[in-house]
Design goal:
The structure holds two protein chains of two kinds. By secondary structure, chain A is an all-alpha fold. Chain A has one domain: Helix Hairpins (Orthogonal Bundle). Chain A contains three helices and no strands. The chains are: A mainly alpha, B mainly alpha.
Chain lengths: 93, 130
């Protein structure tokens, strides 16, 4: 009973997070300006981190957690680099 | 690999946290799609970054702690990373967007910063009567 409830909630949460990623991807394709696309990329990787965490809850173990941590760090570096590029026209001066 | 002897109250708590976190992330992405200007859109994804991440991390922490039989808190590392990096990244992005809008003379979206002299003139009558 409790395992079934958890499995259903996990599946629904994964579907919702995948839908959130699709919406962010739509904004990334449509976004009228470059900063909209970068913002959508930020939301996209954040949703992906949460989705990987949900996979980790379903499977147990710490492998998925480490993947999520690496994704969060590289996504942050990517967003900052893109923001710097929008500000200056180059990433490293 | 969900433990078979999971008590019902824990399953309910974890399910509610999972659904709340995923729902907030979905709401944030919906806001990202629906709001009209960039400066409104910036507010939406922070919903997923703060409350949504908190709920899902808490669910993961509770379930892992139950499985191991002792407190598992390494999700706090990911929480700390998300909580410190999201505001920094979005602040840098908004500053870049503001710089671009000002550079293009897009006054309606981003008015130029007030001159130091005009600011002092505004302050003088306000501080006079007191």
């Amino acid at each position: 009973m409790s395992a079934l409830l958890l499995a259903v909630a996990l599946t629904v949460a994964q579907v919702m997070l995948a839908l959130a990623m699709i919406l962010a991807a739509v904004r990334m394709v449509r976004g009228p300006r470059a900063q909209d696309r970068v913002l959508a990329f930020d939301a996209l990787y954040l949703d992906a981190v949460l989705l990987v965490l949900c996979f980790g809850i379903g499977s147990g173990g710490t492998l998925y957690f480490e993947v999520a941590l690496a994704m969060a760090l590289t996504g942050f570096v990517g967003t900052v680099a893109l923001a710097k590029f929008l500000l200056r026209g180059e990433v490293i001066e | 690999m969900i433990a078979p002897a999971l008590p019902l109250w824990l399953a309910v708590v974890v399910s509610v946290l999972l659904l709340a976190g995923a729902g907030l992330a979905l709401l944030g992405s919906l806001g990202l799609l629906r709001f009209r200007t960039f400066y409104e859109r910036v507010h939406a994804p922070t919903l997923a970054g703060t409350l949504g991440a908190t709920a899902i991390l808490l669910a993961s922490m509770l379930l892992a702690s139950f499985d191991a039989g002792r407190p598992i808190v390494h999700e706090l590392v990911l929480g700390a990373v998300l909580f410190t990096t999201t505001p920094v990244a979005l602040l840098l992005l908004v500053r870049a967007a503001l710089y671009r809008d000002r550079h293009e003379g897009n006054i309606a979206v981003a008015p130029p910063p007030a001159e130091p002299g005009a600011e002092a003139a505004d302050e003088r009558p306000a501080s006079g009567p007191q």
